[in-house]
From TrEMBL:
<dbReference type="InterPro" id="IPR012938">
    <property type="entry name" value="Glc/Sorbosone_DH"/>
</dbReference>
<dbReference type="InterPro" id="IPR011042">
    <property type="entry name" value="6-blade_b-propeller_TolB-like"/>
</dbReference>
<dbReference type="InterPro" id="IPR011041">
    <property type="entry name" value="Quinoprot_gluc/sorb_DH_b-prop"/>
</dbReference>
<feature type="domain" description="Glucose/Sorbosone dehydrogenase">
    <location>
        <begin position="206"/>
        <end position="318"/>
    </location>
</feature>
<dbReference type="Pfam" id="PF07995">
    <property type="entry name" value="GSDH"/>
</dbReference>
<protein>
    <recommendedName>
        <fullName>Glucose/Sorbosone dehydrogenase domain-containing protein</fullName>
    </recommendedName>
</protein>
Length: 359
């Protein structure tokens, strides 16, 4: 499955040829397959040519023959030149990582979050932009009823460039014991469009269903840091005592960093498995306005530049001279087309960044 040459077996790399429904078989193996397994051919392919040729070995194997014998199955598997180091993460001469991807779910509409609850059930949850979250069992089967359904409250549209909608979900570190989870989505209140951050609890009667009546919490801010423990009584959350603006007049104490435009996805570094280096760093992706997207390492009290800058590029010339803009915390940004990354130490890392066009 990890072979970069697997597409050859189905002629998938050439758009001018029809996609094979049965992979290209080597002649000796095809003869063995025809003699031992031809009764299953109708279950493998609906190609009329293959169906009609199933009773004639020569005709059948001719249809499955490949122009380049090096890529036929199963000889491809024993070709050391083509199969060495499969399944390992490698880097080519341009610095691009070569990864083996494995499909875990399909049939989704604009999926944008995939998380697990760390509760020992080995389920994983996928959120869709329209406001649905689906639970998948360890065997990757999707439950018929959504885990969370807030489609009526979520503000989004069918326009492919719409950045609004259901944008994030995370589970409390102690979800196994308290059943709390948090979601981030767009809403419309009157004529205003806002971002809502809400706390939910899982149903007491069904571990695969959120209690939709349990929703609470809301605040529009920058990068927010709040304490959500021990909130069964009293305030929904508390302000950590070391938040950077807690004693600053006119500032919301929830704000941890600012100068971001549409920071819609964050991850916490688990650190090096042995040294723990990098542990607890927060990486967040921020959607740009025009040419650039950026990924930032979030640090306490930092100004990440919007709406003066997107990435390292000046967006508003009048605002770019602001001395509080933090350059050192920006990890990298990607241009509208391929661009090189640069890490926080300034070392050139010639890795491929994805084009902004098409996601």
């Amino acid at each position: 499955e990890c072979s970069p040459y697997a597409a050859h077996l189905f002629d998938a790399e050439d758009p001018s040829t029809p996609l094979r429904t049965i992979p290209g078989l080597c002649p000796d193996y095809c003869s063995q397959f025809w003699n031992e397994c031809r009764l299953i051919i109708p279950f493998l392919s609906d190609d009329p040519r293959i169906y009609q040729g199933r009773d004639d070995e020569n005709r059948f194997c001719k249809l499955l023959e490949m122009d380049d014998g090096d890529y036929c199955y199963p000889h491809l598997l024993s070709n050391q030149k083509l199969t060495q180091n499969l399944g390992r993460v490698e880097m080519d001469s341009d610095g691009c990582l070569q990864l083996c991807l494995e499909e875990v779910a399909n049939g989704l509409r604009n999926p944008l979050a995939m998380v697990h609850a760390n509760d020992g059930t080995h389920r994983f949850f996928v959120g869709e932009q329209v406001g649905l979250v689906w639970a998948f069992l360890p065997d990757r089967s999707k439950l018929e009823k959504p885990f969370l359904n807030i489609t009526k409250a979520v503000l989004t549209s069918s326009w492919e460039g719409d950045e609004r909608g259901f944008l994030g979900i995370t589970f409390h570190p102690k979800y196994k014991y308290n059943g709390k989870l948090y979601v981030y989505y767009s809403v419309e209140i009157g004529f205003d469009e806002r971002i809502r951050i809400s706390e939910f609890r899982v149903s007491a009667n069904d571990m695969n269903l959120v209690d939709h009546t349990s929703e609470r919490s809301a605040l529009l801010g920058k990068v927010l840091r709040i304490d959500v423990d021990n909130n069964e009584r009293g305030p929904l959350y508390r302000i950590p005592s070391d938040n950077p603006f807690i004693h600053e007049y006119g500032a919301r104490p929830e704000v941890y960093a600012y100068g971001v435009r549409n920071m819609w996805r964050c991850s916490v570094d688990r650190g090096d498995p042995q040294t723990k280096e990098g542990k607890s760093r927060i990486f967040c992706g921020d959607v740009g306005q025009n040419k650039y997207e950026e990924v930032d390492i979030i640090e306490k009290g930092r100004n990440y530049g919007w709406r003066a800058k997107e990435g390292f590029s000046c967006y508003d010339k009048k605002l770019c001279t602001n001395s509080s803009l933090s350059k050192s915390a920006t990890l990298f940004f990607c241009q509208k087309y391929l661009h090189c990354w640069q890490d926080v130490a300034g070392r050139a890392d010639h890795s491929c960044a994805r084009s902004n066009e098409g996601g």
